[in-house]
UniProtKB/TrEMBL annotation:
Gene designation per UniProt: tsaD
Designated name of the protein: tRNA N6-adenosine threonylcarbamoyltransferase
InterPro entries in the cross-refs: ATPase_NBD, Gcp-like_dom, KAE1/TsaD, TsaD
Positions that bind substrate: V134, V135, S136, G137, G138, D167, G180, D184, N274
GO biological process: tRNA threonylcarbamoyladenosine modification
The Gcp-like domain, residue ranges: 24-308
Pfam families linked to this entry: TsaD
Residues binding Fe cation: H111, H115, D302
Upper lineage: Bacteria, Bacillati, Bacillota, Clostridia, Eubacteriales
Protein's organism: Candidatus Gallacutalibacter pullicola
């Protein structure tokens, strides 16, 4: 079965053709990073306009690179939640029009479920059940994946997501957008023991996260040094902050594994590309005899291949959408 996936939840316009949820026949992404870099972050109105301009060409290119026409597609899968509402609406309305004109079934896909499904492409042997840490700019979740379309949230952030904390800290250190990527690179040349940052926890909810205080801590440190005319060693600062954030993620994730008895640990989302997070979880899993899965680096960020992958399993589960499908800025992953 061949699924045409469409993604437009933030600042990447993407289309892909995926076969049987695991084999990528094509994957095309039109990135807006260079434009949003001018503003230090994503500008929703600009993102929506660029999606409108790019989505037709991106979809046509995906079909051409797969070597098939729309008649060779079995269903259309589209990201409808969560994300920037204007950006989502571009993809949803385009997919609805394509489905209406072609007669193909329309499959709604939750964005976080797609990130998890990126692992099915990289690791064809991976099957539920497993425990997944989904970490991105807007989300930090520990999810029990009981089946392809049955998920249970065990823990989540109470305030900022880990990716947002990385981006805001990087910006305060003078790094360009997207900050998290640059911080990870700079941190590799720094001393992670140079600065001590707090390891926040949530009272009564040991699997939940809180990164707001950690983010504020590094920003205050930078501002205080600036007011005193002091220069902080950025590589050391980046390495110490990265260690603190990753420490929180790994601690809660491994605690969830012990509580649930999970033997398969999976990471997903943009922050799953973080080099320290990958190496730390690889080490912990090796020490405990757990299997560790992570997506290929090119599948960590937003893309449509992951939408096509999850769309396949949503289709098999009977999920269909009509012309009344709407975009949702927020929606729990266990309700998608």
């Amino acid at each position: 079965m061949r699924i045409l996936g469409i993604e437009s939840s933030c600042d990447e316009t993407a289309a892909a053709v995926v076969e049987d949820g695991r084999r990528v026949l094509s994957s095309v992404i039109a990135s807006q990073v260079e434009e949003h870099k001018l503003y230090g972050g994503v500008v929703p109105e600009i993102a929506s306009r660029r999606h409108s301009e790019a989505i037709v060409g991106v979809t046509r290119q995906a079909l051409d690179e797969a070597g098939i026409s729309l008649s060779g597609i079995d269903a259309i899968a589209v990201t409808y939640a969560p994300g920037l509402i204007g950006a989502l609406l571009v993809g949803v309305n385009f997919a609805k029009g394509l489905a209406l004109s072609s007669g193909l079934p329309l499959v709604p896909v939750h964005h976080l479920r797609s990130h998890i499904a990126a692992n099915y492409i990289t690791n064809p042997e991976l099957e539920p059940p497993f425990l997944c840490l989904v970490v991105s700019g807007g989300h930090t979740h520990i999810i029990q994946v009981e089946d392809y379309t049955k998920l249970r949230i065990l823990g989540c952030t109470r305030d900022d997501a880990a990716g947002e904390a990385f981006d805001k800290a990087a910006r305060a250190m003078g790094m360009p957008y997207p900050g998290g990527v640059h911080l990870d690179k700079v941190a590799q040349d720094g001393n992670p023991e140079a600065f001590r940052f707090p390891r926040p926890s949530v009272d009564g909810a040991p699997l939940d996260f809180s990164f707001s205080g950690l983010k504020t801590s590094v920003i205050n440190l930078i501002h205080n040094a600036s007011q005193k005319g002091q220069t902080l060693p950025v590589p050391d600062l980046a390495a110490s902050f990265r260690k603190a954030v990753v420490g929180c993620l790994v601690h809660n994730f491994t605690e969830a594994a012990r509580q649930t008895g999970s033997k398969k640990l999976v990471i997903a989302g943009g922050v799953s590309a973080n080099s320290l997070l990958r190496s730390e979880l690889e080490r912990v899993c090796a020490e405990n005899g757990w299997k560790f899965y992570r997506p290929a680096l090119n599948l960590c960020g937003d893309n449509a291949a992951m939408v096509g992958a999850q769309g396949y399993y949503e289709y098999l589960a009977g999920s269909r959408a009509g012309m009344d499908l709407n975009a949702c800025a927020e929606m729990p992953v266990d309700q998608g």
